[in-house]
Amino acid sequence: MVHNLSNRNSIFNQFLAEIRNSEIQKDSMRFRRNLERIGEIFAYEISKELEYQTTETTTPLGVAETLMLTEQPVIATILRAGLPMHQGFLNYFDQAPSAFISAHRKHHKNNTFEIMLEYLAGPELDGKTLILCDPMLASGASLTMTYKALLAHGTPKHTHIVTAIASTEGISHLKANMPNNNFSLWCGAIDEELTAQAYIVPGLGDAGDLAYGEKI
To answer: Does the bond joining 202 to the residue before it have cis omega, within 30 degrees of 0?
Structure first.
């Protein structure tokens, strides 16, 4: 199941346009805040897919019945670019446990690269709902590798993969290479082109650099 939020009329599209805008990108605080807002909207949309039970809440005038989440999802993020979106999810799922993964591209002189995964910390995942977020889904290699690494902590009952901008090639890679089909993909937008260096066009550039400054 692929959900593309840009196909709907909502304020979400304004935030998406602003993280793409090369002039607005010069304000790193605004870029981070827009990614956080995007994470919040994704959190609200995904919350509709989770399990609920009826609970009673005592008010000053009586008792109200309310549908409440049966459990909090586990929110996993790829460092460092995913941190603002992660905060957006935590703003809504404020009791959710978190997982963090350090994954990056190691570029070689012949314009090729390999995905390096150096750090993973998180809770038990068996039978849990997992939300795995990263602003960009380019080739799909890092997300697939990250998910496979997370399986060392258990097998989720369902995984929601969340990205602000995805490429069609990256989506195809996920469908072909994920260990199982028990996942949903949530995209802010889907772009058709991917360069030889695996950058999305028109995309937005390097989300980590735009949020936190250029790395060495």
So the answer is: yes
Residue 94 CA to its chain's centroid (Å): 16
Per-residue pLDDT tens digits for 61-108: 999 999 999 999 999 999 889 999 999 999 999 999 999 998 766 655
Residue that is written with structure tokens 């807002």 in the block: 37
Cβ atoms of residues 62 and 56 within 8 Å: no
Can you give the length of the chain in residues?
Answer: 216
Dihedral, 85, 89, 92, 98 alpha carbons, nearest 10:
-140
Token pair listed for 62: 């009586």
User: The tokens of 116 are what?
Assistant: 């390096």
Is this structure's pTM higher than 0.70? Answer: yes
3-class DSSP state of 51: coil
40 vs 164: CA distance, rounded Å: 12
**How many other CB atoms are found less than 10 A from the CB of residue 170?**
27
Q: How far apart are CA 178 and CA 60, in angstroms?
A: 50
Per the DSSP assignment, residues forming a β-bridge with 162 are: 133, 186
